[in-house]
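Try this one yourself first.
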């Protein structure tokens, strides 16, 4: 067993790939879609029942302001987290991820366009898949979304014939 085998976990490729792609989906939504602020209701609602003292105080404007600030900060924080993880990648992997998964038009860009036209000189599909998997592996570990392979422990200690 080499040093890398015990240090780096074995990941489920398809589930990890799906998790990373979902993370970039969320990234694009946070980065490129506008956030609609909640606003306070300024008109009083009409009610047949009289309002009485409930023993609680409510600050609708303060709650809404807090929500708006918290949601925007959460979106910015997530985008920064993803951008920092991508910035740590090697040059080729970083280029691939930025062009294919982080751009505003990434929904309209396919893998073939990236490896044939964006890379100069163009690279093969096999090399593209290798770079993409290596980037996904590293990003999954950085972002904490890696899906590890479940090892079957059947037969070890599960059979007790006393």
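Now uncover the answer:
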């Amino acid at each position: 067993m080499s040093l890398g085998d015990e240090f780096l976990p074995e990941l489920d490729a398809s589930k990890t790939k799906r998790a990373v792609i979902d993370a970039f989906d969320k990234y694009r939504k946070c980065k490129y879609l506008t956030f609609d602020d909640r606003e306070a209701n300024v008109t009083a609602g009409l009610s047949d029942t009289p309002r009485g003292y409930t023993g609680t105080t409510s600050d609708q404007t303060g709650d809404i302001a807090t929500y708006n600030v918290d949601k925007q900060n959460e979106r910015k924080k997530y985008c920064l987290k993803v951008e920092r993880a991508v910035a740590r990648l090697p040059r080729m992997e970083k280029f691939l991820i930025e062009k294919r998964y982080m751009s505003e038009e990434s929904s309209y860009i396919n893998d073939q366009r990236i490896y044939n036209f964006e890379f100069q000189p163009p690279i093969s599909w096999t090399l593209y898949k290798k770079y993409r998997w290596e980037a996904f592996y590293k990003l999954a570990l950085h972002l904490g979304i890696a899906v590890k392979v479940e090892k079957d422990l059947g037969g070890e200690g599960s059979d007790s014939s006393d």
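Discussion: The helical segments are 3-7, 13-32, 60-87, 91-102, 111-118, 125-143. The mean pLDDT is 84.
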